[in-house]
Each structure stands twice: as structure tokens, then as C-alpha cells.
Amino acid sequence: MKMWAIYSAGSSRQHQRGVGFKYSFFTFFIVTFLFTSPLTHASSVVSTGEIKGRVTNAATGEALPFANVAVKKNGDVITGSMADEHGNYRIRGIQPGEYSLEASFAGMKTTVLEGLLVTAGGLLIQDIEVGMLDLPICVVRPPVIPLDPSNEFTLTPRDIAKIPVASSDPVSYAPLAPGVFPAPDGSGLYIRGARKESTQVYIDGMKVIGSTEMPGRSINQVTVLTGGIPAEYGDLTGGLILITTNGYFNR
Fold first, then answer.
1. Kind of pairing, strands 49-57 and 123-125?
2. Residues 6+ positions from 178 with CB-CB distance below 8 Å
3. Which of 12, 16, 131, 186 is 20 to 30 Å apart from 75, CA to CA?
4. Which range among 83-92, 109-118, 135-144, 193-202 shows the weakest confidence by mean pLDDT?
5. Alpha carbons 124 and 130: distance in angstroms, whole number
6. Is 35 helix (H, G, I), strand (E, B) or coil?
7. Phi–psi pair at 136, nearest 5 degrees
8. Can you tell me the distance from the alpha carbon of 32 to that of 180, in angstroms, rounded to the nearest whole number?
9. What is the Cα–Cα distance from 159 to 135, expressed in whole angstroms?
10. What is the value of pTM for the model shown?
11. Maximum Cα–Cα distance for the chain, whole Å?
């Protein structure tokens, strides 16, 4: 009887340790998920842009419900969406760069819009008109008009290639934007009169504190926001510099 009691007590302690280990592991998993998921989501929001608009009949101006809209680069479909019952569409999570937009509807011709520039954290509003079957495929290059030209300045890869003196620090290109001035001692930037400490820098959606040096060929796009800062970046009193690096589709 004593041996059985000792064995039972030992088994009970082992069981308790096993339950405690499983409980601790489960708690660690839940806490890790709760803390990392918002950061991952915030990073993806910050480093990507979106396109929205309305798909209509070119002849009548009526909305085309459930039309298909695809974002393409070099002929490949990157992402896409379907319009709602009112012809409205919205495509999120697009990596910064230049794309074409293709809209199609059953019984009608496909319309392709080329040269659309998506910026980090930017929203591009682009309506699409789709023609009837007796019309050829319509290919146009609409002018890219930002929502507020005075508050946003973007350097594309083509713009960066034209700069006479290349730099390994993409922040050094920021003074090309209106209202941005470098500090006399080179320790920061003054954006529209705000303090140097009020300017924030993000690289691929991650906030950077310290050096922003990187290989020059890895820089894809530099966007400077001097006003109208999107809510996802927080409450800023200065400016915002968004830097994206070259990815697979930017080669």
C-alpha cells in the first residue's frame, strides 16, 4: 500500500508539471500572437498603397456591377478585386510602383489604363469606363493627379536615376520636395518649420531610428509627406518620409 501511495503521488506531480507546462506554452502563444499581429498588420498598411474607383459603361455612364478589376505589371496579374453592386471597387495592399489597371465585364470590351503610380501609404482614385463589344480595346495613359499635390512629393526610380550625384542615404533626397530644408549642421531636416525630431522615416513599413544608409540600387521609391499625414502613422507635428526598396516586381 505504501509503494502504491508513493507511485500515485509521483504520478500526480508529473501530471501537474505536464499540465503546468502546457498552460505556460499556451499562455506564451496567446500573448505573442496578440502583440505581434497588430505590428505585422500596421507594417503592411504603412508600406503599401491602394486604388479605388468606379467602373461604368462608357456609352451610358451607368455603373457595371461586379465588374472584374486587375492590377498588372509587365503583363502579369499582381492582384485584383470585383466591383460591388454599384460598380465601386477598392484594391488594397499594393506594393509601391507603376502598374496598369485592367477592367472587364461580360459582353463588353476590356479597358486597360497604363502608367498608374502607387505610392506607399497613398490612395489613388481611378474611375474606369468600359466600352461595348463593337469598340476596340481602349488603352490610355491618364494623368496621375495626387489628392493634394502640395503635401506629397514622390521620387520614382526614373527620377532617382536622373539625379547627378547618387546617394546611399535616401533621406538626402527629401530636400528636393517643397518646404523641406536640411539642418545647417546636417543632423536632420526641417519640414514646414517643424523641429527636426518631429520628422519620422519608414523603410518598407518599419519605423527607422538612427542611420538610413543602404545600397543605392536597392532604393525603389522615396515619398515625402509634408501634410495630411494618414492616421495609421500616428500624430505627427512634422513630416513623414516613406522609403521602399526594390522587390521582385521592381527588378
1. parallel
2. 150, 153, 226
3. 131
4. 135-144
5. 19
6. helix
7. -70, 170
8. 40
9. 36
10. 0.54
11. 96
